[in-house]
Recover the amino acids of this structure.
């Protein structure tokens, strides 16, 4: 009958090799020497190979024993690595974070700042990014392909948990050639006669409807021009003279020649931003990133409204 070998026996082998004798190894292992000798004898019998040459001077690994001891060291090291990794997973210090972001939100300064702070706090966690529109991101959350997503509400899936983060104010984008390009603040009604370049509604129905509603409050229905394939794409389209645009204020950092950005006076449409997660218990990694992002949003600039 074979002896059930476990990590304890591998530690015995390594201790004898390191100490050079059974007596000193037993002392290092805090056990009696006879049981140690018995365990090694049984192990040699079970493996069918002599592991040590015994003499009055001590114990020296045989050629086969030396090779097996090196394997034992490797296995013990892997065992410790496995244990440390498991503990890291339990505490949220090891593993991965799959982060999804709605189009153009990668340009929001808070996002790279949150990722940087998270990676500094948990260097053992690998962060991967995916950019798409909100409905696609919600499906990825439900399918387990993403852990968390930064989206523009509303979320089409009732099974996805949404945590509001903040409302970003919008700005008007004009081409240099526009008569109002030299002004600072502009009312929405000042662009009532201009072609308005909007993104396709399915990319962010909540923000799209907010823009239209703000125009209606200001007393006009916008003249919709060519639709942009992404929210950020509206800015270069304005530069070509195709019309004007209303965009989240953070897109001002897009350095596009031929356009000017203007604060909106009166009714200001705001771009809502939220965290979305599948309806499952969050792990330590997910909670850690959510806490960092939420904290940065609480420190947001005065022009932004933090959502509770």
């Amino acid at each position: 009958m074979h002896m059930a070998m476990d990590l304890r026996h591998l530690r015995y082998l390594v201790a004898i090799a390191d100490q050079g004798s059974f007596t000193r190894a037993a002392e290092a292992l805090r056990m009696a020497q006879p049981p140690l000798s018995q365990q090694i004898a049984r192990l040699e019998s079970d493996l069918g190979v002599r592991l040590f040459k015994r003499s009055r001077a001590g114990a020296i690994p045989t050629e086969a024993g030396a090779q097996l001891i090196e394997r034992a060291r490797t296995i013990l090291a892997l065992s410790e690595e496995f244990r440390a990794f498991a503990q890291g997973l339990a505490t949220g210090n090891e593993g991965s974070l799959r982060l999804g972001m709605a189009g153009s939100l990668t340009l929001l300064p808070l996002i790279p700042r949150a990722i940087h702070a998270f990676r500094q706090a948990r260097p053992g966690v690998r962060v991967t990014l995916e950019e798409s529109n909100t409905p696609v991101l919600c499906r990825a959350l439900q399918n387990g392909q993403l852990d968390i997503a930064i989206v523009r509400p509303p979320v089409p899936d009732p099974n996805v948990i949404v945590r509001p983060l903040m409302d970003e104010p919008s700005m008007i984008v004009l081409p240099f050639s526009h008569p109002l390009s030299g002004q600072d603040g502009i009312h929405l009604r000042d662009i009532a006669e201009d072609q308005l370049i909007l993104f396709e509604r399915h990319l962010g129905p909540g923000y799209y409807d907010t823009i239209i509603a703000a125009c209606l409050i200001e007393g006009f229905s916008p003249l919709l021009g060519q639709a942009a394939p992404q929210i950020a794409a509206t800015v270069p389209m304005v530069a070509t003279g195709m019309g004007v645009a209303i965009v989240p204020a953070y897109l001002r950092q897009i350095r596009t020649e031929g356009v000017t950005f203007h604060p909106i006076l009166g009714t200001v449409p705001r771009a809502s931003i939220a965290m979305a997660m599948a309806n499952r218990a969050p792990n330590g990694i997910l909670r850690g990133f959510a806490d960092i992002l939420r904290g940065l949003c609480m420190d947001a600039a005065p022009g932004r409204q933090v959502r509770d």
